[in-house]
Amino acid sequence: MEETKKEYNSFNLILFAWKWRKPLIIVCLAAAVLSFGFSTRWFIRPRFKSTAVIYAPRTNSLSKILLNEENYNERLDIKAYAIEEETEQMMQILNSRDIKDALVKKFNLIDYYGIDTTKKAWKSKLYKTIENNVAIKRTEFGAIAIHVAAWEPEMAANMANEITAQLDITKNRIEHERATAAYEILKKQLSEIEAELLRIDDSLAVVMSHGIFDYESQSERVMQQYAIAVGQGNNAAVQRLEKELEKLATWGPLYVELRDHQYNFREYEFLCKSKMMNAKVDMESNMPVKFVVEKAVPADKKAYPKKSIITLVSTVSAFILAFIILLIIENVKNAAKPKEDE
User: For the whole model, what pTM was predicted?
Assistant: First the structure.
């Protein structure tokens, strides 16, 4: 029963639309003509869109790539593409304020977007306008697409390519700052290590001035000679060797301690110099931080407005609105008829 009622209601709507077909057709035609006319360049300034596509590398540390002495590591392969983590980090940099400021300065976006700097919160309006015209999105293949819309196709392409260029500048600057800080810390640490080594060398020189050059081998040799002298009953040799043993007992432990400290600090010195070399390579390098898959080129047709879509949406909306208004008018008339008959 309900199904029959629904079919009946739907059929009534079709009959109603047919009854009012002329006004509905006029409204739709008027909406189509007006929407098409108002979507022309005389009323809506057309915008063009350009896209650059890039991939993030797995690592940008030139020192790790060139100075790696370990076995093959995919992460340190200069040709390896990034995974999700590196891509997300790069997208964060692409959306940073530094890159937006570089675009504002190079392309004079304050005048281009007509921003009135005398008004309050003009900076917020400027950056909001940039965000509305620049979209950084991740593609289904893990790349990063940089979409830029502008009123001129050349402007859109130049801005997209400039963003990819600023990515190198910004990321290298950040990494150079960290590498420089690391280099200065290591340089200070190396200076302290070298000062400690000089102190140890001076102390060892004092110990060696007492005839201690190799505690283990000297102790072994003196003990052998002492045993022989005791066995032979050579008292003079025994007394001389006892003095040697006493000297070894006095200065030997200090010699061993200083020698071990010297060895450890030599290891620290080597490690520190190695890390300084790595930091210096990163500090002085200007390696590209992305793989450019597709450079942005000027578009040959506008991206907005889409006349067909605007016309279609406007026509359908006008039809629905007119249909609803006519339904309301018809229901009001039908509701008023019984009262008139009474």
Answer: 0.64
